[in-house]
Amino acid sequence: MILASAIDTEAFLLQIIMQLVIIIGAARLGGWLLARWGQPQVVGEIATGLLLGPSCLGRLNPELSGILFPAETSSSLLLLGQLGLILLMFIIGLEFDFGWLKKTGKTAAAVATCGMVLPFTLGALLAWSLHARLAAEHSLPGFVLFTATALSITAIPILGRIMMEFQITRTALGVLTISAAAIDDALGWILLATVSSGIHGDFSLLPMTIMLGKTILFILAIAFLVRPLCFWWLNRVIRQDQQELSLPAFSFILILVLLSAAEIGRATCRGRQYISETDELFKKKHLAPIPTPTRQHHMTHSDM
C-alpha cells in the first residue's frame, strides 16, 4: 500500500516536472521569437501560454492537450503559478527605486486618473455594443460598468516585466509608471467589487468599509511597524557574522507572511464569480464544447 502510494506520488511529480519543462521551454522560445521582432519577451511568453492552453491546443487537438495537461494536475500547476507570480511581484518591488516617488507622487496620481478614464470610457462603449450579443441575460448598466471597470485594471506583473527588460526600473519614468499602475490596480479592484456586488443585489456598505479599513491598517502597519523591524533585522544580519536566519530565508518568510494581505481582497470574490458566469455564458452561446472527458477545467482569468 505504501509502495503503491509512493509510486503514484513519483508518477505525479514526474508529470508535473514534464509539464513545467514544456511550459517553460515553450515560453522561452516564444519570448525569444517575439524579441527578434522587436517585441517584449513577456508578450511572446503570454502568446505561448494561450497557444498551449485549452483556448487553442485544447480546441484544436483535445486528445493531445489532455495527455500533456491532464485535469488532475491543473490545481498543482495553478498553485505553482501563483507562487511564481508572488516571487515575480517581490522581484519587481526590489528592482524599482521608489526614492523617486517623493518627487513624482502627485504626477503618478494624475497619470493613474487619466489611465483609468480612457480605458473605462472605451470599455463602456465596447460593452454597450456587445451587450445584446454576449450578455443579454444581464442588465445593460451592470454589464457596461463591470466590463469598463475590468478593462481599467492594469496588469502590474506584465508591466513590471516589460520595464525590467528595458532597464528603466531605476528611473523616474519607471517609478512613475509602476506607481500609477499600482493606484489603478487598487482602485480598479475596489470598483470591480462594488459594481459586481451591486449587480448581484447584495451590495452592503459595511463590508466595503471594513475592507477599506483593513487596507488602511495594513498600509500603516507596513509603514510604521514592519518596515522599521525589517531595517533593524537587516542591520543585525549585515553587521554580525553569526548563525542566524539568512537574508534570503528571511526575505522569503516575509513574503509569505505578507500574503495574509490577501484577506483584504476577499471582497473581489463577487467580481471573480461574475467573470466566471460571463465566461460560461459566452462559451455556451459562441463556442462548441470540447469533446473530451479528460478536460474538465478551463482557462481561468489571470491577474489583470
Q: Can you put this structure into words, describing what you see?
A:
Helix content is 75%, strand content 0%. By secondary structure, it is mostly helical. Helix 5 crosses helix 8, helix 6 (101-134) packs parallel to helix 9 and helix 8 runs antiparallel to helix 9. The protein is globular, with a radius of gyration of 22 Å.
> What is the terminal-to-terminal distance?
45 Å
Order of helices and strands: HHHHHHHHHHHH
Shape: globular
Helix segment tally: 12
Beta strand %: under 5%
Q: Biggest β-sheet: count, sense, barrel?
A: none
**SS content category:** mainly alpha
Query: Structurally, how many domains make up the residues?
Result: 1
Quantity of strands, as a count: 0
Average pLDDT score: 76
Low-confidence stretches: 264-304
Share of helix, binned: over 70%
What is the quaternary state of this protein? single chain
| Radius of gyration, taken over Cα atoms and rounded to an integer in Å | 22 Å
Helix-strand layout with pairing:
Elements: H1 2-36, H2 41-52, H3 57-60, H4 62-68, H5 74-95, H6 101-134, H7 140-150, H8 156-165, H9 172-199, H10 205-239, H11 247-258, H12 269-286
Helix pairs in contact: 1-2, 5-8, 6-7, 6-9, 7-9, 8-9, 9-12
